[in-house]
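Methods: example folding runs. The two proteins below were folded one after another, and each record is reproduced exactly as written to the output file, sequence line first and structure-token line second.
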Amino acid sequence: MNETQTTKILSRKEAGVGYLIFNNPERHNAMSLEMWDGTRRVLDDFEHDSNVRVAVLTGAGGKAFVSGADISEFEKLRSSQELIDKYNAVSEKAFTGINDFPKPTISMIRGYCIGGGLGLAVCTDLRICTDNSKFGVPAAKLGLGYGYVGVKRLVDLVGPSFAKEIFYTARQFDAEEARSMGLVNRVVPTAELETYVKNYADTMAGNAPLTIHAVKVTIAQAVREDSKRDVALADRLVQECYNSNDYKEGRKAFMKKRKPVFTGS
């Protein structure tokens, strides 16, 4: 197991899975500017490590995934338009780094997943939470503007009606409400979360990376507007699957009734 630390962002790699841990438990993992920046740097490391096939994001301390941005920094770091723009540029790199990450991503959520924390979770492919988790976007209680890109990501996930309910009420939703909206994929008891997510991540890591990447890109194209879709890119990635050694390995393993060993080539 390899473990690295960048201030309040922890990371480790285990058997094809990279774990990114938001580590500010005394503030329920509220995101500081340093943490936004650290998130992107860890993701860059995971992206360029061919041994990492899946990324799992989670929060330290057991009480929160991420409770939002660290508001105590706002007076100093978001007190003018110039500072707001600089802050937003750094945080958006973290959101974009997750949203555009080429490998599967899972949010493993315990407790509070609020504001920017929910924004981070929405950027991952899957969200698996404990039955005592809480979700919400309190922007309307703080007078904050919420940018188009972040709103659209939520609308794409839960639809316009639920997105309006989340923003308009600014209240906290429990895990079952989140599941009914499509905000999370699975809700599990707290004691089972780690094992459940590990099994999901291990399963994905053992599947054909080229196939998964092709599907991820194709789905991303499918939810775009017609004029912005790159169908040719999706078709090319599908053809690369058929031309790969992994396709040959998959067929051989199926015929011999053994587990395939995929290399991503």
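Second run, written to the same file directly after the first:
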Amino acid sequence: MLEPLVVFVFGLIIGSFCNVVIYRLPTGESIIRPGSHCRLCSAPLRPWDNIPLLSYLLLRGRCRSCKGRISLRYPCVELACGALYVLLWYKFGLNILFVIYALLTSTLLVVALIDLDHKIIPNTITLPGILLGLGLSLWALPITPLASLIGLVAGGLFFYLVAVVSKGGMGGGDIKLIAMIGAFLGWQGAFFTILTGALMGSVVGVGLMLLGKKGRKDKVPFGPFLSFGAIVFTLVGHDLIRWYIGLMS
């Protein structure tokens, strides 16, 4: 059982880097320099205070220098990334597909939290992601280049039409995000993501209105729901589709 443990630890490390991207990319900061530091007092983190998950527990969620509280999001992102990597390992094993979908899943996690915080989905993530998905469909992904292209165009065009009809109800970032997802997952993955995202978004939106957290006219970022739908499809999408077809037959 050493292999899943190694995968989990690797996921924690990548999750730690994802935290850096989530907090720095929207503000235009470099994701490389300066090194990790406390966001409250700017004190550089010592190597032993920057161990994913473990350091947070040992420090009891507080900065060693200023004793300020460290956001619980840091270990949660690391833990989520580690857990997702283990699930991907269980489904695909250690191979090129694991590497590709680990990259996609990590990217979707970053996109979801940036959109949640800032209501934006950076082009610096989605546009290279679209090209990468198309390129990987030529030799590594379990979909054809045509399926990748159809997923990209169909998903993006559908959201573009929604944006036109709703007069701004759908953002350009969402259009490019679903295009990227379609490039990686094909047309089936794109529409599964849209349906799952819409369902989850409706449930959460209604729940927030019932709790008085949001009004009917308040916008809820859609990126987190699209990211959730794409991750679900990556892990169990084809199984769910086969199960549904079996029910209908």
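Comment on the second run: The chain is about 70% helix and 0% strand.
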